Structure of Dipeptidase, putative:
Amino acid sequence: MNIEKNFDNFVRDLERLIRIPSYLQEDNSGYPFGEPIQKSLEEMIEICKELGFKTYIDPAGYYGYGEVGQGEKLLGVLGHLDVVPPGDLEKWDNPPFEPKIIDGKLYGRGTQDDKGPMLAAIYGIKNLLDDNFQLNYRIRFIFGTDEENLWRCIPKYIEKEEIPSMGFSPDSKFPLIYAEKGLLQCKLRVKNTSGLVFKGGDAFNSVPSKMVGKKSESLINTLKELNYDFVEVGENVEVIGKSVHAQVAETGINAINRYMEALEKSGVHTTSGQFIVENIVGHDFAQPIFGDIKDEHSGELKFNIGKIEFTPEEEILGIDMRIPVTYKTEDIVEKLKNAIEKYGFTYEQYDYLRPIYTPLDSPLVKTLMSAYSEVTGDKESQPVASGGATYARAIDNCVAFGAILPGKPKTEHQPNEFIFLDDIATAMEIYMDAFIKFNEEN
């Protein structure tokens, strides 16, 4: 398949998108998620227009789409244009919103999650159309704007627009994600009796890479005893962590947990510190709260404290959980409420996304797996379950499909996010083959 003739244009257009810092921002623009996200949506719509697609943008700024083809059947390709905040800029070797190619890798926030994969799918069909491929169905590329937060965008699309009969979301990894855990985000609140006021963490769904608080001799000594990385910055101490996506929280280093543990062991007692030390520290999956929660389809329950805030009145913990597909969310919530009762916390649900499960023998899974294996030659890799939350949950008969190839690093939500240009070219070819196969089946 010929992808070379348009690949430079793909890179150029992806760089256009990366330059827009499209993370959630409170501003006075009148757009639901801030002016930068709106600009990113408008830029993607402009790219689709330039490629000859039919386009639509929601007047309120919640979503947009580009469409090609003809016929009654509608295939949805669902992705998002919002990104997580860049976090600690000092951890970036290159500014996150100034795309740069180094050693065959394109760096920038959103290259892997999800601007790069979404644009690769778009250019996949563009390549086919340029070779006079005749679509006998419609493909609609649906762009969301609040995927990294509360998913307030995609329900607006569902409410107002045509629902695809099937689809995929290029927002995960190959070969294919057939099941996604339930996603539950909540806040735990309790009275603040410590007098401390601080906050940390960028997002529920990211393991925090740093936590800053007032330094003291006892805190510094405790951090040294625990052998935790930190730096002193003026009157503050910055505890160093390692940011990863909450779906693999156990592979990161949670700076909030480390800071609160050190604070507690240095003699500064807080309810949150006690809770974290007794239930989270040393337990990758919060086993003291939940026990061993896992299933054969989707693995362990994942638990991440992504945000913390101490106001003069209360302590607030922001928690992200990924619940195995065979467990009931209400049972998990009951276990959490029972565990926090002795600490005096109150439970407040922040967000919830249902789990999904698509049978392995479904036509959708078979078609996409066939495209993947034919292009890559990989006959061994099998569909897997994930703790991630993609737009595959938004409609029935939808899965996550790419764009990270097996064995390649996942850099989403991390400093120095990047994609291998050769790999995204392969992903583009896989999407092209999938579009051809859908045509043959229609």
Notes: The longest helix spans residues 421-441.
